[in-house]
Amino acid sequence: MAKKAIFKCSECGASYTKWSGRCDSCGAWNSIEEEVPLSTAGPAKKTLGAMKGRSIPLTDLGTTEAPPPRTMSGMSELDRVLGGGLVDASAILVGGDPGIGKSTLLLQGAARFAEAGLKVVYISGEEASAQVRMRAQRLGLSHAPVLLGAETNLRDILTTLETEKPDLAIIDSIQTMWADHVESAPGSVSQVRAAAHELTTFAKQRGMAVILVGHVTKEGQIAGPRVVEHMVDTVLYFEGERGHQFRILRSVKNRFGPADEIGVFEMTGGGLSEVSNPSALFLSERGEPTPGSVVFSGIEGTRPVLVEMQALVAPSPHSQPRRAVVGWDSARLAMILAVLEARCGIAFAGLDVYLNVAGGMKISEPAADLAVAAALLSAREDAALPKDTVVFGEISLSGAIRPVGQTENRLKEAQKLGFSTAIVPNAKKDGDTAGMQTRTFADLTGFVGDIFGA
Ligand code: TYD
Ligand code: MG
Question: One Gene Ontology cellular component annotation (predicted)?
Fold first, then answer.
Protein backbone atom coordinates (compact mmCIF):
# COMPACT_ATOMS: atom_id res chain seq x y z
CA MET A 1 0.00 0.00 0.00
CA ALA A 2 1.28 3.45 -0.88
CA LYS A 3 2.41 5.57 2.00
CA LYS A 4 -0.04 8.37 2.82
CA ALA A 5 1.15 11.89 2.03
CA ILE A 6 1.12 14.12 5.08
CA PHE A 7 2.65 17.32 3.69
CA LYS A 8 0.72 19.66 1.45
CA CYS A 9 1.53 22.83 -0.42
CA SER A 10 -0.77 25.57 0.78
CA GLU A 11 -0.59 27.38 -2.54
CA CYS A 12 -1.37 24.64 -5.06
CA GLY A 13 -2.39 21.70 -2.87
CA ALA A 14 0.31 19.28 -4.11
CA SER A 15 0.99 16.41 -1.67
CA TYR A 16 4.39 15.20 -0.49
CA THR A 17 5.58 12.49 1.84
CA LYS A 18 8.27 14.72 3.33
CA TRP A 19 8.76 18.41 3.98
CA SER A 20 10.83 20.59 1.70
CA GLY A 21 11.46 24.31 1.44
CA ARG A 22 10.08 24.71 -2.03
CA CYS A 23 7.08 23.17 -3.78
CA ASP A 24 8.21 21.29 -6.88
CA SER A 25 4.82 21.63 -8.41
CA CYS A 26 4.19 25.39 -8.26
CA GLY A 27 7.61 26.70 -7.23
CA ALA A 28 6.37 28.52 -4.10
CA TRP A 29 8.80 28.83 -1.19
CA ASN A 30 7.90 27.93 2.39
CA SER A 31 4.44 26.86 1.40
CA ILE A 32 4.66 23.21 2.40
CA GLU A 33 2.94 22.44 5.67
CA GLU A 34 2.26 19.32 7.62
CA GLU A 35 -1.32 18.24 7.15
CA VAL A 36 -2.88 17.89 10.59
CA PRO A 37 -6.23 16.11 10.48
CA LEU A 38 -8.82 18.53 11.84
CA SER A 39 -10.98 15.87 13.36
CA THR A 40 -10.65 12.18 14.13
CA ALA A 41 -14.38 11.71 14.51
CA GLY A 42 -16.20 9.35 12.16
CA PRO A 43 -18.17 10.52 9.17
CA ALA A 44 -20.86 13.07 9.83
CA LYS A 45 -24.11 11.46 10.83
CA LYS A 46 -26.55 13.64 9.00
CA THR A 47 -25.72 12.66 5.43
CA LEU A 48 -29.16 12.89 3.91
CA GLY A 49 -30.62 10.41 6.39
CA ALA A 50 -32.27 7.43 4.74
CA MET A 51 -31.24 8.63 1.32
CA LYS A 52 -27.62 7.92 2.18
CA GLY A 53 -25.72 6.22 -0.58
CA ARG A 54 -28.57 6.51 -3.08
CA SER A 55 -28.59 8.88 -5.96
CA ILE A 56 -31.50 11.25 -6.30
CA PRO A 57 -32.81 12.48 -9.64
CA LEU A 58 -32.30 16.22 -9.92
CA THR A 59 -36.01 16.71 -10.53
CA ASP A 60 -36.91 15.11 -7.18
CA LEU A 61 -35.07 17.68 -5.15
CA GLY A 62 -38.07 19.98 -5.32
CA THR A 63 -38.22 23.33 -6.98
CA THR A 64 -40.35 25.12 -4.47
CA GLU A 65 -37.56 25.70 -1.95
CA ALA A 66 -37.64 29.29 -0.75
CA PRO A 67 -34.61 31.49 -1.45
CA PRO A 68 -32.29 31.84 1.55
CA PRO A 69 -33.41 34.50 4.02
CA ARG A 70 -31.44 37.74 3.71
CA THR A 71 -30.97 40.93 5.63
CA MET A 72 -30.35 44.25 3.95
CA SER A 73 -27.91 46.63 5.60
CA GLY A 74 -29.36 49.63 3.82
CA MET A 75 -25.92 50.35 2.35
CA SER A 76 -26.99 49.52 -1.18
CA GLU A 77 -23.45 49.23 -2.54
CA LEU A 78 -22.64 46.59 0.09
CA ASP A 79 -25.97 44.79 -0.28
CA ARG A 80 -25.60 44.49 -4.03
CA VAL A 81 -22.08 43.06 -3.84
CA LEU A 82 -23.36 40.48 -1.36
CA GLY A 83 -25.90 39.44 -3.99
CA GLY A 84 -28.86 41.30 -2.48
CA GLY A 85 -28.16 41.48 1.25
CA LEU A 86 -26.53 39.23 3.81
CA VAL A 87 -27.62 35.60 3.64
CA ASP A 88 -28.31 34.01 7.04
CA ALA A 89 -25.60 31.61 8.21
CA SER A 90 -23.29 32.43 5.32
CA ALA A 91 -19.51 32.77 5.55
CA ILE A 92 -17.84 35.71 3.85
CA LEU A 93 -14.20 36.61 3.37
CA VAL A 94 -13.29 40.26 2.85
CA GLY A 95 -9.72 40.65 1.60
CA GLY A 96 -7.63 43.69 0.84
CA ASP A 97 -4.33 45.45 1.36
CA PRO A 98 -3.54 46.63 4.87
CA GLY A 99 -4.82 50.19 5.34
CA ILE A 100 -7.22 50.10 2.41
CA GLY A 101 -10.27 50.55 4.67
CA LYS A 102 -11.56 47.08 5.53
CA SER A 103 -12.07 47.75 9.23
CA THR A 104 -13.84 51.02 8.45
CA LEU A 105 -16.14 49.34 5.92
CA LEU A 106 -17.00 46.48 8.23
CA LEU A 107 -17.57 48.66 11.27
CA GLN A 108 -19.97 50.76 9.20
CA GLY A 109 -21.56 47.58 7.85
CA ALA A 110 -21.83 46.13 11.36
CA ALA A 111 -23.63 49.25 12.55
CA ARG A 112 -26.08 49.15 9.63
CA PHE A 113 -26.83 45.45 10.07
CA ALA A 114 -27.34 46.02 13.79
CA GLU A 115 -29.76 48.86 13.03
CA ALA A 116 -31.55 46.52 10.62
CA GLY A 117 -32.26 44.21 13.55
CA LEU A 118 -29.39 41.71 13.57
CA LYS A 119 -27.41 40.97 16.70
CA VAL A 120 -23.86 41.81 15.64
CA VAL A 121 -20.58 41.02 17.39
CA TYR A 122 -17.43 42.72 16.06
CA ILE A 123 -14.26 41.01 17.22
CA SER A 124 -11.01 42.84 16.64
CA GLY A 125 -7.70 41.09 17.02
CA GLU A 126 -5.78 44.13 15.87
CA GLU A 127 -7.14 46.92 18.02
CA ALA A 128 -8.25 47.22 21.62
CA SER A 129 -11.98 47.70 22.24
CA ALA A 130 -11.30 51.32 23.21
CA GLN A 131 -9.66 51.96 19.85
CA VAL A 132 -12.56 50.40 17.98
CA ARG A 133 -14.94 52.52 20.05
CA MET A 134 -12.95 55.64 19.13
CA ARG A 135 -13.10 54.71 15.50
CA ALA A 136 -16.85 54.20 15.79
CA GLN A 137 -17.13 57.64 17.37
CA ARG A 138 -15.19 59.18 14.49
CA LEU A 139 -17.54 57.49 12.07
CA GLY A 140 -20.57 58.77 13.99
CA LEU A 141 -21.61 55.26 14.94
CA SER A 142 -21.24 55.40 18.70
CA HIS A 143 -24.96 54.71 19.23
CA ALA A 144 -25.04 51.62 17.05
CA PRO A 145 -26.01 48.50 19.04
CA VAL A 146 -22.89 46.52 18.09
CA LEU A 147 -21.12 44.33 20.64
CA LEU A 148 -17.34 44.79 20.60
CA GLY A 149 -14.69 42.31 21.59
CA ALA A 150 -10.90 42.38 21.47
CA GLU A 151 -9.81 38.75 21.33
CA THR A 152 -7.35 36.62 19.45
CA ASN A 153 -7.73 33.23 21.09
CA LEU A 154 -10.14 31.14 19.07
CA ARG A 155 -11.40 29.23 22.09
CA ASP A 156 -12.32 32.49 23.85
CA ILE A 157 -13.99 33.79 20.72
CA LEU A 158 -16.07 30.66 20.29
CA THR A 159 -17.08 30.86 23.95
CA THR A 160 -18.15 34.46 23.47
CA LEU A 161 -20.13 33.57 20.38
CA GLU A 162 -21.66 30.59 22.17
CA THR A 163 -22.98 32.78 24.99
CA GLU A 164 -23.94 35.83 22.93
CA LYS A 165 -25.53 33.87 20.05
CA PRO A 166 -25.21 36.69 17.51
CA ASP A 167 -26.73 36.66 14.03
CA LEU A 168 -23.53 38.04 12.57
CA ALA A 169 -19.93 37.87 13.79
CA ILE A 170 -17.18 39.94 12.20
CA ILE A 171 -13.64 38.68 12.74
CA ASP A 172 -11.00 41.37 12.07
CA SER A 173 -8.65 39.86 11.03
CA ILE A 174 -8.30 36.13 10.46
CA GLN A 175 -4.49 36.49 10.47
CA THR A 176 -4.46 37.59 14.10
CA MET A 177 -6.49 34.63 15.36
CA TRP A 178 -4.86 31.61 16.88
CA ALA A 179 -6.05 28.19 17.88
CA ASP A 180 -4.13 26.74 20.81
CA HIS A 181 -4.21 23.21 19.40
CA VAL A 182 -2.16 24.28 16.38
CA GLU A 183 1.53 24.70 17.04
CA SER A 184 2.47 27.60 14.83
CA ALA A 185 2.42 31.36 15.00
CA PRO A 186 -0.74 33.42 14.27
CA GLY A 187 -0.86 34.34 10.61
CA SER A 188 0.77 31.10 9.49
CA VAL A 189 -1.10 29.02 7.00
CA SER A 190 -2.02 26.28 9.47
CA GLN A 191 -3.33 28.83 11.98
CA VAL A 192 -5.33 30.74 9.39
CA ARG A 193 -6.77 27.50 8.05
CA ALA A 194 -7.63 26.15 11.48
CA ALA A 195 -9.22 29.42 12.61
CA ALA A 196 -11.20 29.85 9.39
CA HIS A 197 -12.36 26.25 9.51
CA GLU A 198 -13.49 26.40 13.15
CA LEU A 199 -15.26 29.73 12.69
CA THR A 200 -17.08 28.78 9.51
CA THR A 201 -18.15 25.38 10.85
CA PHE A 202 -19.33 26.98 14.08
CA ALA A 203 -21.25 29.58 12.09
CA LYS A 204 -22.97 26.99 9.88
CA GLN A 205 -23.94 24.85 12.88
CA ARG A 206 -25.42 27.76 14.85
CA GLY A 207 -27.04 29.54 11.94
CA MET A 208 -24.79 32.57 12.41
CA ALA A 209 -23.32 34.57 9.54
CA VAL A 210 -19.61 35.24 9.79
CA ILE A 211 -17.43 37.80 8.00
CA LEU A 212 -13.69 37.11 8.07
CA VAL A 213 -11.31 39.95 7.27
CA GLY A 214 -8.11 38.87 5.55
CA HIS A 215 -5.01 40.86 4.70
CA VAL A 216 -3.66 40.32 1.25
CA THR A 217 -0.04 39.27 1.03
CA LYS A 218 2.45 40.83 -1.36
CA GLU A 219 1.54 38.39 -4.11
CA GLY A 220 -2.01 39.68 -4.00
CA GLN A 221 -3.46 36.72 -2.21
CA ILE A 222 -4.73 36.20 1.29
CA ALA A 223 -2.40 34.05 3.41
CA GLY A 224 -3.49 30.49 2.97
CA PRO A 225 -5.52 31.81 0.06
CA ARG A 226 -6.96 28.74 -1.59
CA VAL A 227 -7.74 27.22 1.76
CA VAL A 228 -9.79 30.12 3.12
CA GLU A 229 -11.43 30.98 -0.18
CA HIS A 230 -12.74 27.42 -0.45
CA MET A 231 -14.19 27.43 3.04
CA VAL A 232 -16.44 30.43 2.59
CA ASP A 233 -19.51 31.09 0.46
CA THR A 234 -18.51 34.54 -0.67
CA VAL A 235 -15.15 36.16 -1.35
CA LEU A 236 -15.00 39.95 -1.60
CA TYR A 237 -11.98 42.11 -2.26
CA PHE A 238 -11.71 45.71 -1.18
CA GLU A 239 -9.45 47.52 -3.61
CA GLY A 240 -8.37 50.95 -4.68
CA GLU A 241 -5.31 53.03 -5.38
CA ARG A 242 -3.76 54.64 -2.35
CA GLY A 243 -3.71 58.13 -3.85
CA HIS A 244 -7.37 57.97 -4.89
CA GLN A 245 -10.38 58.46 -2.72
CA PHE A 246 -12.38 55.73 -4.49
CA ARG A 247 -12.67 52.26 -3.04
CA ILE A 248 -14.18 49.32 -4.86
CA LEU A 249 -15.67 46.27 -3.18
CA ARG A 250 -15.63 43.42 -5.69
CA SER A 251 -17.12 39.93 -5.38
CA VAL A 252 -14.85 37.30 -6.90
CA LYS A 253 -16.87 34.33 -5.67
CA ASN A 254 -20.44 34.30 -4.48
CA ARG A 255 -22.56 31.25 -3.83
CA PHE A 256 -25.59 33.52 -3.37
CA GLY A 257 -25.27 36.03 -6.17
CA PRO A 258 -23.36 37.09 -9.24
CA ALA A 259 -19.58 37.19 -9.04
CA ASP A 260 -17.78 40.22 -10.43
CA GLU A 261 -20.30 42.60 -8.92
CA ILE A 262 -18.81 45.85 -7.65
CA GLY A 263 -19.78 48.41 -5.05
CA VAL A 264 -18.17 51.82 -5.21
CA PHE A 265 -17.34 53.93 -2.17
CA GLU A 266 -15.66 57.23 -1.60
CA MET A 267 -13.35 57.75 1.38
CA THR A 268 -14.13 60.75 3.50
CA GLY A 269 -13.00 62.00 6.90
CA GLY A 270 -16.23 60.58 8.31
CA GLY A 271 -15.80 57.13 6.78
CA LEU A 272 -16.90 55.55 3.53
CA SER A 273 -19.80 57.05 1.63
CA GLU A 274 -21.62 55.17 -1.10
CA VAL A 275 -21.35 56.16 -4.71
CA SER A 276 -24.54 55.18 -6.44
CA ASN A 277 -23.58 56.62 -9.82
CA PRO A 278 -19.98 55.51 -10.37
CA SER A 279 -19.90 56.56 -14.04
CA ALA A 280 -20.42 60.19 -13.12
CA LEU A 281 -17.69 59.90 -10.53
CA PHE A 282 -15.15 58.22 -12.80
CA LEU A 283 -15.75 60.76 -15.54
CA SER A 284 -15.97 63.77 -13.25
CA GLU A 285 -12.44 64.97 -13.92
CA ARG A 286 -12.91 64.95 -17.65
CA GLY A 287 -12.82 68.19 -19.63
CA GLU A 288 -12.64 68.77 -23.37
CA PRO A 289 -11.63 65.74 -25.49
CA THR A 290 -7.87 65.21 -25.45
CA PRO A 291 -5.70 62.92 -27.55
CA GLY A 292 -5.20 59.54 -25.89
CA SER A 293 -8.37 59.71 -23.84
CA VAL A 294 -11.31 57.47 -24.73
CA VAL A 295 -14.46 56.68 -22.74
CA PHE A 296 -15.26 52.98 -22.45
CA SER A 297 -18.78 51.82 -21.70
CA GLY A 298 -18.20 48.73 -19.58
CA ILE A 299 -20.26 46.31 -17.52
CA GLU A 300 -19.20 45.57 -13.96
CA GLY A 301 -21.28 42.77 -12.51
CA THR A 302 -24.86 43.70 -13.24
CA ARG A 303 -24.26 47.38 -13.78
CA PRO A 304 -22.91 49.46 -16.67
CA VAL A 305 -20.01 51.74 -15.72
CA LEU A 306 -18.34 54.32 -17.91
CA VAL A 307 -14.61 54.79 -17.42
CA GLU A 308 -11.94 56.76 -19.16
CA MET A 309 -9.03 54.89 -20.76
CA GLN A 310 -5.95 57.07 -21.04
CA ALA A 311 -2.96 56.32 -23.24
CA LEU A 312 0.33 58.07 -23.75
CA VAL A 313 2.66 57.20 -26.60
CA ALA A 314 6.09 58.84 -26.75
CA PRO A 315 9.41 58.21 -28.49
CA SER A 316 11.47 55.93 -26.31
CA PRO A 317 15.02 56.72 -25.20
CA HIS A 318 15.50 53.04 -24.36
CA SER A 319 16.51 50.22 -26.65
CA GLN A 320 13.64 48.25 -25.11
CA PRO A 321 10.60 50.59 -25.12
CA ARG A 322 8.45 50.65 -22.02
CA ARG A 323 4.95 49.20 -21.77
CA ALA A 324 3.32 50.28 -18.52
CA VAL A 325 -0.29 49.51 -17.60
CA VAL A 326 -2.42 50.51 -14.61
CA GLY A 327 -5.88 48.98 -14.24
CA TRP A 328 -5.73 46.66 -17.24
CA ASP A 329 -4.00 43.43 -18.26
CA SER A 330 -0.51 43.97 -19.69
CA ALA A 331 -0.69 40.78 -21.77
CA ARG A 332 -3.88 42.09 -23.35
CA LEU A 333 -2.14 45.39 -24.17
CA ALA A 334 0.69 43.50 -25.86
CA MET A 335 -1.91 41.63 -27.90
CA ILE A 336 -3.66 44.82 -29.06
CA LEU A 337 -0.30 46.36 -30.04
CA ALA A 338 0.57 43.21 -31.99
CA VAL A 339 -2.79 43.17 -33.79
CA LEU A 340 -2.45 46.87 -34.71
CA GLU A 341 0.97 46.18 -36.15
CA ALA A 342 0.20 42.92 -37.94
CA ARG A 343 -3.28 43.74 -39.28
CA CYS A 344 -3.18 47.51 -39.76
CA GLY A 345 0.53 48.11 -40.24
CA ILE A 346 0.68 50.58 -37.35
CA ALA A 347 3.88 49.92 -35.44
CA PHE A 348 4.71 51.01 -31.90
CA ALA A 349 8.37 49.97 -32.16
CA GLY A 350 10.65 52.59 -30.62
CA LEU A 351 7.71 54.11 -28.74
CA ASP A 352 6.99 53.97 -25.03
CA VAL A 353 3.36 53.08 -24.34
CA TYR A 354 1.53 53.93 -21.11
CA LEU A 355 -2.06 52.91 -20.45
CA ASN A 356 -4.09 53.97 -17.45
CA VAL A 357 -7.68 53.39 -16.38
CA ALA A 358 -8.76 56.63 -14.72
CA GLY A 359 -10.04 56.74 -11.16
CA GLY A 360 -8.18 53.64 -9.96
CA MET A 361 -10.64 51.25 -11.64
CA LYS A 362 -9.54 47.80 -12.75
CA ILE A 363 -11.03 46.53 -16.01
CA SER A 364 -10.91 42.89 -17.03
CA GLU A 365 -13.54 42.80 -19.77
CA PRO A 366 -12.30 42.01 -23.30
CA ALA A 367 -15.00 44.47 -24.42
CA ALA A 368 -12.51 47.22 -23.55
CA ASP A 369 -10.18 46.14 -26.40
CA LEU A 370 -11.53 48.61 -28.93
CA ALA A 371 -11.46 51.49 -26.45
CA VAL A 372 -7.82 50.66 -25.68
CA ALA A 373 -6.95 50.48 -29.37
CA ALA A 374 -8.71 53.82 -29.92
CA ALA A 375 -6.83 55.41 -26.99
CA LEU A 376 -3.49 54.09 -28.32
CA LEU A 377 -4.15 55.34 -31.84
CA SER A 378 -5.49 58.66 -30.63
CA ALA A 379 -2.33 59.17 -28.54
CA ARG A 380 -0.05 58.06 -31.36
CA GLU A 381 -1.73 60.25 -33.98
CA ASP A 382 -2.22 63.10 -31.49
CA ALA A 383 -5.85 63.30 -32.57
CA ALA A 384 -8.72 63.37 -30.10
CA LEU A 385 -11.84 61.31 -30.72
CA PRO A 386 -14.98 63.34 -31.47
CA LYS A 387 -16.66 64.80 -28.40
CA ASP A 388 -19.33 62.80 -26.56
CA THR A 389 -18.24 59.45 -27.98
CA VAL A 390 -18.05 56.11 -26.16
CA VAL A 391 -16.34 53.00 -27.48
CA PHE A 392 -16.61 49.26 -26.83
CA GLY A 393 -15.92 46.00 -28.66
CA GLU A 394 -13.66 42.97 -28.46
CA ILE A 395 -10.74 42.61 -30.87
CA SER A 396 -9.73 39.17 -32.09
CA LEU A 397 -6.25 38.20 -33.27
CA SER A 398 -7.47 38.36 -36.87
CA GLY A 399 -8.27 42.03 -36.39
CA ALA A 400 -12.02 41.44 -36.42
CA ILE A 401 -14.12 43.49 -34.02
CA ARG A 402 -16.42 41.10 -32.23
CA PRO A 403 -19.78 41.89 -30.64
CA VAL A 404 -19.97 41.93 -26.84
CA GLY A 405 -22.84 41.33 -24.43
CA GLN A 406 -25.29 43.89 -23.05
CA THR A 407 -24.98 46.38 -25.90
CA GLU A 408 -28.23 48.04 -24.97
CA ASN A 409 -27.27 48.59 -21.32
CA ARG A 410 -23.94 50.06 -22.34
CA LEU A 411 -25.61 52.46 -24.75
CA LYS A 412 -28.31 53.44 -22.26
CA GLU A 413 -25.76 54.33 -19.60
CA ALA A 414 -23.79 56.42 -22.10
CA GLN A 415 -26.93 58.21 -23.21
CA LYS A 416 -27.87 58.91 -19.59
CA LEU A 417 -24.50 60.59 -19.05
CA GLY A 418 -24.86 62.87 -22.03
CA PHE A 419 -22.96 60.94 -24.71
CA SER A 420 -24.44 60.98 -28.20
CA THR A 421 -22.28 58.69 -30.34
CA ALA A 422 -21.02 55.15 -29.83
CA ILE A 423 -18.34 53.31 -31.78
CA VAL A 424 -19.40 49.68 -31.57
CA PRO A 425 -18.97 46.25 -33.20
CA ASN A 426 -21.11 45.32 -36.19
CA ALA A 427 -24.05 44.30 -34.03
CA LYS A 428 -26.58 41.87 -35.44
CA LYS A 429 -29.53 43.42 -33.68
CA ASP A 430 -30.83 46.78 -34.79
CA GLY A 431 -33.01 49.17 -32.92
CA ASP A 432 -31.23 48.72 -29.56
CA THR A 433 -29.44 51.99 -29.84
CA ALA A 434 -31.13 53.68 -26.88
CA GLY A 435 -31.31 56.94 -28.78
CA MET A 436 -27.58 56.92 -29.49
CA GLN A 437 -26.01 57.41 -32.87
CA THR A 438 -23.89 54.31 -33.55
CA ARG A 439 -20.96 53.82 -35.88
CA THR A 440 -20.38 50.14 -36.42
CA PHE A 441 -17.21 48.43 -37.60
CA ALA A 442 -16.54 44.81 -38.47
CA ASP A 443 -12.76 45.00 -38.32
CA LEU A 444 -9.93 47.09 -36.99
CA THR A 445 -8.67 48.16 -40.41
CA GLY A 446 -12.02 49.76 -41.24
CA PHE A 447 -12.09 51.46 -37.83
CA VAL A 448 -8.57 52.84 -38.17
CA GLY A 449 -9.20 54.14 -41.69
CA ASP A 450 -12.49 55.78 -40.84
CA ILE A 451 -11.73 57.32 -37.47
CA PHE A 452 -8.06 58.18 -37.82
CA GLY A 453 -7.69 58.32 -41.58
CA ALA A 454 -4.69 56.04 -41.38
P1 TYD B 1 -8.71 50.91 7.98
O2 TYD B 1 -10.18 50.73 7.89
O3 TYD B 1 -8.10 50.79 9.33
O4 TYD B 1 -7.97 49.94 6.98
P5 TYD B 1 -7.71 48.33 7.09
O6 TYD B 1 -8.62 47.77 8.11
O7 TYD B 1 -8.00 47.81 5.71
O8 TYD B 1 -6.27 48.15 7.44
O9 TYD B 1 -8.39 52.34 7.33
C10 TYD B 1 -7.08 52.84 7.23
C11 TYD B 1 -7.02 54.30 7.62
O12 TYD B 1 -7.74 55.12 6.73
C13 TYD B 1 -7.56 54.58 9.00
O14 TYD B 1 -6.63 55.39 9.69
C15 TYD B 1 -8.82 55.33 8.77
C16 TYD B 1 -8.64 55.96 7.44
N17 TYD B 1 -9.91 56.09 6.66
C18 TYD B 1 -10.59 57.30 6.62
O19 TYD B 1 -10.15 58.29 7.23
N20 TYD B 1 -11.75 57.41 5.89
C21 TYD B 1 -12.27 56.34 5.22
O22 TYD B 1 -13.33 56.48 4.54
C23 TYD B 1 -11.56 55.09 5.26
C24 TYD B 1 -12.07 53.88 4.54
C25 TYD B 1 -10.39 55.01 6.00
MG1 MG C 1 -8.05 46.83 9.90
Answer: cytosol
Place 218 in a pLDDT band, splitting at 50, 70 and 90. Answer: low
Question: 367-395 in b/e burial notation, b at 16+ Cβ within 10 A?
Answer: bbbbbbbbbbbbbbbeebbeebbbbbbbb
Q: Look at 133-147, 215-229, 257-271 and tell me which has the smallest mean pLDDT.
A: 215-229
- Three-class SS of 218-241: CCCCECCHHHHHHHCCEEEEEECC
Nearest to 274 by CA among 39, 112, 38, 35: 112
> Domains of the chain (ranges plus CATH)?
1-37 (no CATH), 70-276 (3.40.50.300), 281-452 (3.30.230.10)
Q: 43 pLDDT band (50/70/90 cuts)?
A: very low
Binding site listing for ATP: 96-103
CA–centroid distance, residue 133 to ligand 2 (Å): 14
Q: Which amino acid residue places its CA nearest to atom 9 of ligand 1?
A: 101
| 426 burial type by CB count under 10 A (0-12 exposed, 13-18 middle, 19+ buried) | middle
* Ligand 2: centre distance to CA 359 (Å): 23
Specify the 3-state DSSP secondary structure of 272: strand
Model confidence, pTM: 0.80
Q: What is the pLDDT of residue 258?
A: 86
- Lining ligand 1 with CB less than 6 A are 96, 98-104, 267-269, 271-272
Dihedral angle at the C-alpha atoms of 441, 442, 446, 452, nearest 10 degrees? 40
Question: What is the per-residue pLDDT for 302?
Answer: 83
What rounded mean pLDDT belongs to the chain?
87
- Give the mutation target among 77, 104, 237, 275 for probing the ligand 1 site: most ligand atoms within 8 A of CB: 104
pLDDT at 333: 96
With pLDDT > 70 as the criterion, what percentage of the chain qualifies?
89
Maximum separation of any 2 CA atoms in the chain, in Å: 75
